[in-house]
Design brief:
alpha+beta; Aminopeptidase; OB fold (Dihydrolipoamide Acetyltransferase, E2P); 9 helices; 20 strands; binds zinc ion; zinc; N-alpha-Ac-DABA_deacetylase
Length: about 350
């Protein structure tokens, strides 16, 4: 190659540029972009906000995305704070920040894309010439996901429920497992995820990706947001993107495999729920998790729901009304070692522990 022994040339710098259809961000530059992914009924552009921070030093390209479901807000704040606070002068690599992917859903404060109720997070990698959801997914995927080396997609529980901060990841894939472990959550739920989800389709396109689930829809939950920011810094340390950060160990961790003990406890009666335990609670086999009562609170009609095994409440109902078959809580079993570690931690910080999950 001509000039290969000389000082780094413009051509070398160009190799590390982040390019997308219509633009580029060179090393040592940051850019806030509004990128068109569709058009409204009025023919106006539907544009997603994107921040690209291209570090002064070469390294991996990492995407952080949120609000594929338009009412799941916690991740928006995580991605916004990363985009605002991190500087290209500190980075070995590039950050691609996508705080709001499902713009129509976000504007309506709805989970799905409005009108046809399409799930953007079942529409990846998307396709040109297909449905509006797939076209949007395609524009996001080709421009901002495929050029990356790894990624984190932030979600919350569905409206009316809440969950502990946890990671969902295909732990059979070593690069995904490395990413999942680096995020420093207590709980990792293993599995490849449904087809059409960003994490599964990105991972299959050689961009190892995990989902982070945290809290409830329609809220900013500061403690969860801070813990997620710690997780992001830990991932960036693990992959050498930010060398001043350290990989963070959460104190204890459990990986829930597909065949491990776990269940969504469902209501067998319709009624009003009195939930006794919150997200992050450790419950013993036979312990009462909640009761379901009729409008008159008649004693004869009280349904008591007990834990079928000792475990951790990862997700739980917030809106206290159920039809038969509605989920009450997501309970996962724990190994004896994990249970001991968790109990030790809880004795130390007894009063606050549930709230901090
Ligand atoms: Zn979601």
């Amino acid at each position: 190659m001509v000039g290969s022994t000389s000082e780094p040339s413009d051509a070398d710098a160009m190799d590390d540029a982040f390019t997308y259809n219509g633009g580029r961000v060179d090393p040592g530059e940051s850019a806030n972009i509004r990128y068109g992914i569709s058009e409204t009924y009025l023919g106006d552009p539907v544009r997603i906000p994107v921040t690209i921070i291209n570090g002064e030093h070469p390294g991996p390209t990492v995407f952080l995305s949120a609000a594929a479901h338009g009412d799941e807000l916690n991740g928006i704040e995580v991605v916004r704070e990363v985009a605002h606070d991190w500087d290209h002068s500190d980075l070995h690599g590039t950050l691609v920040c996508l705080p709001v992917m499902n713009v129509p859903g976000f504007l309506a404060q709805e989970r799905y894309l409005p009108i046809y109720d399409r799930d953007l997070n079942r529409s990846f990698p998307g396709r040109e010439g297909s449905t509006s959801a797939r076209r949007m997914a395609h524009r996001i995927f080709t421009n901002f996901i495929e050029p990356c080396d790894l990624g984190i997609d932030f979600h919350t529980s569905t409206r009316g429920r809440t969950n502990m901060l946890h990671v969902r990841a295909n732990m059979d894939d070593p690069s995904v497992a490395r990413l999942a472990n680096a995020f420093s959550s207590h709980v990792i739920i293993a599995g490849e995820g449904p087809s059409g989800t960003l994490r599964r389709e990105a991972t299959e396109a050689d961009v190892p990706t995990v989902t982070v689930e945290m809290g409830e829809a329609h809220r900013f939950q500061r403690k969860l947001i801070d813990r997620a920011l710690t997780g992001v810094a830990s991932v960036l340390a693990e992959f050498g993107v930010h060398r001043e950060s350290a990989v963070h160990w959460p104190g204890w961790r459990t990986v829930i495999a597909a065949d491990d003990e776990k269940t969504w406890l469902r209501a067998d009666a319709g009624g009003i729920v009195d939930m006794k335990r919150g997200r992050g609670a450790l419950v013993r086999e036979g312990e009462v998790i909640c009761t379901i009562t009729n409008p008159f609170k008649e004693e004869d009609d009280i349904v008591t729901v007990e834990a079928p095994f000792t475990g951790l409440i990862v997700g739980v109902l917030e809106n206290p009304v159920v039809y038969p078959g509605n989920p009450l809580c997501h309970l996962v079993g724990l190994s004896p070692d994990t249970r001991t570690a968790l109990e030790n931690e809880r004795t130390k910080t007894e009063s606050q522990s549930q709230l901090r999950m």
